[in-house]
Request: fold
Amino acid sequence: MKSKRSTLNKLEGIGLLLILLSFFLQLFQNDLQSSLNDTQYYQLHDKLDTLWRIIQNDYSQNHPESGVSGTINFEEYSNNWKIYSEEIKELKTWEKSIIFFSKINIILFVIGSVFLIIPKFIEEK
Reply:
């Protein structure tokens, strides 16, 4: 009887550790997702800045009386410009990592929860 209770306590302890581990995996996954979002925002804002510089340059050439000046290097912008499908390919590894850790997190949480619940339904004799 004491041995059975000891086994059930160990099962609960393992369950608690798995749930705790799933919490830390969730934190890591959140950091990955945040980094992915930051990278995507940076890429988007970089493109917007490039477009703004091109519009500013065009305006300054067409309206020299306005006093707006701007010089741009089209070759540099063209070399650095990537269409969305190219940018998203570069981020696929991050997305796959986020999905992988999400699945591991769910599995650990479910197994840990089951390990906590099972001892509650096993009767001591």
Summary: The radius of gyration is 28 Å. The chain is about 85% helix and 0% strand.
